[in-house]
Design brief:
Helix content is 43%, strand content 13%. It is of the alpha+beta class. A 4-stranded antiparallel β-sheet has the order 1-2-4-3.
Length: 227
């Protein structure tokens, strides 16, 4: 039977500041991450307030909370970026996420990668069902689709691999696992997570975006608090 996988989000890369260059203009606070330092400098540059004249916003975290959330000046958060690696997510998830056009995607190709040993992603509603037949029937249907994929590939054995795969992939179910590298600035990530963790959002999206928020918390806890 096809293997069932769980979603996983890994932080691959994020903005790193040039401390020497930043320190020429503004003191770097030890409690701030590189992303938070950069955003603070970008915001303070607009008013030449690098000396932090307001005691209430002296700490970068307080400054960012007021600027981003209270005043709604989220444009400064576009200066820092994060790259995440998504695995154990479905092709349906990919379709949902690519609606957010401010993100950049590198997705594994179904034309070049054989799917005969592909994993499947079970929707949260199916996983949560108390009826064991629901999961069994779902997995069986996915197995049948992947079997049809393999049969179609075999029947096209006279064609090059890429052409065989591109024809046969039409048989693959939406629950097939896909893996992708996704980059976005912190404003884009915040907007995606804020929208896609609402109760009316796709259930898989809600689950995976919460995992993404946990990774982004590591680089910008002020924007992505630990919930």
């Amino acid at each position: 039977m096809t293997s069932i996988v769980e979603p996983r989000v890994t932080l691959l890369a994020h903005t790193k500041i040039n401390e020497e260059a930043v320190s020429e203009w503004m003191d770097i606070q030890e409690s701030s991450t590189d992303a938070e330092t950069l955003l603070t400098m970008a915001g303070r540059n607009c008013y030449r307030s690098f000396h932090r004249p307001n005691e209430a916003t002296y700490d970068d975290a307080d400054y960012l909370r007021r600027t981003l959330f209270d005043q709604g000046h989220f444009s400064i958060s576009e200066h820092a970026t994060a790259t995440l690696y998504f695995t154990g997510v479905s092709r349906a998830f990919l379709t949902e996420l690519t609606r957010h056009r401010h993100l950049s995607f590198s997705v594994e190709s179904q034309r070049f990668i054989n799917a005969h040993d592909a994993n499947i992603v079970v929707p949260p509603a199916v996983r949560a069902s108390n009826d064991p037949y629901v999961l069994r029937n779902f997995a069986n249907a996915a197995d049948e689709a992947i079997t049809a994929y393999m049969i179609t590939r075999d029947e096209l054995e006279d064609l090059p691999k890429k052409q065989r795969n591109e024809a046969a992939r039409g048989m693959l179910p939406n629950c097939i696992e896909t893996r992708m590298v996704v980059t976005g600035n912190l404003r884009a990530w915040h907007e995606v997570i804020q929208r896609r963790t609402q109760p009316d959002a796709d259930a898989e999206m809600q689950q995976v975006m919460r995992l993404a928020a946990q990774q982004l918390h590591l680089i910008a806890p002020t924007i992505f608090p630990d919930k």
